[in-house]
Specification:
- By secondary structure, the protein is an alpha/beta fold.
- 20% of the residues lie in helices and 26% in strands.
- A 7-stranded mixed beta sheet has the order 6-5-4-3-2-1-14, covered by helices on one side. A 7-stranded mixed beta sheet has the order 7-8-9-10-11-12-13.
- A hairpin with a 5-residue loop joins strand 1 and strand 2.
- It is globular.
- It starts with a strand and ends with a strand.
């Protein structure tokens, strides 16, 4: 599995010969100005919720790639009306795709499109493949529901928001890693605006002090495992 960080909460995942884009917000993020979204490949676009900083580039990527949009019914219906392909899910449900099984899980946040359209309840994704299992939390507070995830899937990596103000902070992410029984964390949703800037060295040290690993990738950098 290869995971590429496109800044903010945007990810590219290559697994089992398929390309997945998660929450594409690239053209609106000055930290990601080196990423050309017209070169991105996608078989699927996974959306955790409808906020503009997670869906800004959905339509152009879906148009370029004919990708299937995977999210809750409110979000997929929004894009179906625009002519895009989709697969809708809801909380607690899972589906076996050609790259692995995806489970849509709870997140504590809000969700609406920039035009005011309701975006349904926010969520996260647990992705189980033949090679690795990962959890993408989306924008969320620390929630006790995270304890349920390792009862079904042993995680190799958890991708957690750490920027504070809108989501968990570093300290809550450490607790979340305990709940998830996963000590390898990829941080995201930080530094892309002044409200969510973090001290990188201090954040990494706080995880190390608890015997955990926090990975903070540069925009465009990839992790293979």
């Amino acid at each position: 599995m290869k995971i590429t960080f496109y800044g903010h909460a945007s990810l590219g995942i290559e697994v089992e010969g398929k390309q997945i884009i998660v929450d594409p917000f690239i053209t609106g993020n000055p930290l990601a100005d080196a990423i050309d979204i017209n070169t991105l490949k996608a078989d699927y676009i996974l959306l955790t919720h409808a906020h503009f900083d997670h869906v800004l580039d959905v339509e152009i990527i879906a148009k370029n790639t004919d990708a299937v949009i995977v999210s809750n019914p409110e979000i997929t219906t929004y894009y179906e009306k625009k002519g895009f392909k989709s697969h809708f899910m809801n909380h607690g449900g899972s589906w076996k795709f050609d790259f692995g099984t995806v489970k849509y899980v709870n997140a504590v946040h809000s969700s609406s499109f920039a035009d005011g359209t309701y975006g349904g309840n926010p969520g996260g994704f647990v992705i189980e493949t033949q090679s690795k299992n990962i959890y993408i939390a989306g924008d969320t507070a620390l929630t006790y529901d995270m304890k349920l995830i390792p009862l079904r899937a042993k995680l190799d990596l958890a991708i957690l928001p750490i920027g504070n103000n809108f989501t968990m902070d570093v300290e809550d992410a450490i607790v979340a890693s305990d709940f998830l029984e996963c000590n390898k964390i990829l941080g995201y949703h930080y530094d892309s605006n002044p409200y969510i800037e973090i001290n990188h060295e201090e954040s990494i040290r706080k995880f190390l002090d608890k015997g955990k690993e926090l990975l903070l990738l540069e925009v465009g950098e990839s992790l293979e495992f």
